[in-house]
Design goal:
Length: about 300
Amino acid sequence: LDWTVPFKKDRIKRKIQMNITEEQLWCYYRYEYAKLFDTDLLLQQKQNPPNLLAFEKTPSYMFHGYYLPEILESVCPWKPKLLAILRNPIDRAWSQYNMDVFHNRRYGRDSTFESVLEKEIKWMHQLGLSNAPLPIAGTSTNSSNSDIVVEWEDDGHSFRIPNQTTKSMDDAHKRLFREIFLRNYLQRGMYAFQLRRWKEVFGTNLLIVLFEDLYGPQAQKYYDRILDHIDVPRMSIPTTDYQDQHWSRRQYKKTLSNRTRAYLKKFYEPYNNQLYTMLRKEEGYEYLSNDTFWS
């Protein structure tokens, strides 16, 4: 939907060009969105009791929570059920960077993970999104593969989330996204602000949050919760080697240094606490523990 339905000003322009009503415009976008699915197969189900569910998975949806929930609500007025599957934000950022390197999407002259993060943090300082100290990145002379050594000064307060109004924070996040599009490795791991608007529009009954990192030892439990959420009878996970079949086997050329991971753990700690506080107010997240929450 973030590619199918344009921003409001462009929707108004399309409405004028097509000389149609607001309701007709949303019907048009609903038709365009339906083209992404096997519509012939779905239409066949209208003649029989519904036994087929259609779904899609688009990671960018969650990040565009400042405008997409209302669009999804208009295009799909029946309000579909949603799953938000989160990953440890440090591993998520490192994975995205390595994917960009793999696809030769190195942004700018500096291509190390640490240098890209430093640029993003500088933008966060400018927009009032973070007061985190800038990591001082240098190359280790004791390492054969030129590992990056990260040092920083922490006064005990600098990693706290700046005190801003919700609107000011949302506006700053929008600006950051526009300025460093596709390079916002840190911003995409700030999950609470992304989920807030989705929860406001769809509520806790239609949206559940799952954690990829806890999946392994509790795979069947997670699978049961997903099936319960979409009103499908419970069943066993198809095969014991499911993860081997469906998880990426791509190997990273380098490993994330311990010092960089330690810095990012400090960086994300207040944002993870923010997410933990949000979810603990709701039913179904009793298993979460603040002591082990992406520790």
